[in-house]
């Protein structure tokens, strides 16, 4: 019996199909591989994960979409307004390592389902908070961030298990397209609901219904156990070595290290560290733009005399609608362009991925700086350069994740993603919304209150983002020096 199993395993381990000819010229019998799922089922699983990612980021950007209304409702300064997104992101990043640890050891479908249920319920509850309970509203945003962390940490690792490296970049690009699409839909949904109902609270009552649908689809369409789809692991499945919550081979259990050992190994991975710092700069810029850009555009239009100051109960949210549309369009185009550029350039340069990320960060920083400088005189030019800035930022989303997945060993990927989320948000978009608001407050405090200084304070504080973008490009350049060696190490 042992000899028969060896005969079956040999062609698989040598890269042949089970029915290929054996070394002696005889034909090996065909074998039905348990983990070789139909492509249709894999596509359904990806579709469910993409839908969940869409809802995740719609929820994330509802607050920026109606920021003027929320600021007026609770009577907040710029600093306290920025605190809303900061608390959300802090809770998100602090929860990410916990879910990374759980995702590497326990059933990921259950964790995903619990996260969707939790954040949908809290979002619905936050829609009933009154103006005298600002602190409870802040707390609710933090709890939503915890639920979101479960999804962002674990869903990419399921995609990594379903597809081999050749197809993985394409599928991850599709998955990450729903970051800008969800973000833009968040702005548009929030602004649309506030305008149609006259009450911004209704913006928080749509995504819970969508979350319920996502949970139902997750239960019905996503397998309870997911086996990593590589030829070596398929061979292991034939010999009966697959086991565990997500059908990971026992050889992983035999080499399972502690969480501290995993972290120590990742810290020594130069490509992982440098690309994560580059992603941190991306997160800083994206967080600041996502929170404040509609408000900045509104203040620029007020200074130019294009719109009157908001003195009504419900403010004009047209900038949120436009910015949401820009975010969706540039996000889709940028992610597709980034994935295609990576696919083509990898054939001629093994360092293509980090070089693409570096170039796009430098170009994004330049476009954003120009957009800020022309905002007081030409609002159309501002929109155009913001669109280009967001386009170049979006190029990097899928590429950065793919860098992580091929420079980190498979058994550490959930932990690596969790650490990347923790670091990039801790030093990135956890603080940038509050920092921009605090700088704006400080500038306003030194000058006579006026509409002009209300605009200029935001303009000057936003310049920080352009400089951070340049630093991000530098970190991606550093990544290119180490990526080849770290990739080989991960394969070993």
Low-confidence stretches: 1-36, 230-255
Please state the average pLDDT score: 80
Tally the helices.
20
Shape: globular
- What percent of the residues sit in helical stretches (DSSP H or I)? over 70%
Query: Termini separation (Å)?
Result: 30 Å
CATH homology superfamily name of the largest domain = MFS general substrate transporter like domains
**How do the strands of the widest beta sheet line up side by side?**
1-2
Nearest-angstrom radius of gyration? 24 Å
The structure class reads mainly alpha
Order of helices and strands: HHHHHHHHHHEEHHHHHHHHHH
CATH fold naming of the largest domain = Growth Hormone, Chain: A
Structure description:
This protein has 2 domains: 39-227, MFS general substrate transporter like domains (Growth Hormone, Chain: A); 259-491, MFS general substrate transporter like domains (Growth Hormone, Chain: A, Up-down Bundle). 76% of the residues lie in helices and 1% in strands. It has 20 helices and 2 strands. The protein has helices spanning 2-13, 39-60, 62-65, 67-74, 78-103, 108-126, 134-162, 165-197, 207-221, 231-238, 250-254, 259-267, 270-304, 318-345, 352-373, 379-394, 397-407, 413-427, 432-445, 451-491; strands at 242-243, 248-249. The protein has a two-stranded antiparallel sheet with strand order 1-2. β1 (242-243) and β2 (248-249) form a beta hairpin. α2 packs antiparallel against α7 (134-162). Residues 1-36 and 230-255 have low confidence and may be disordered.
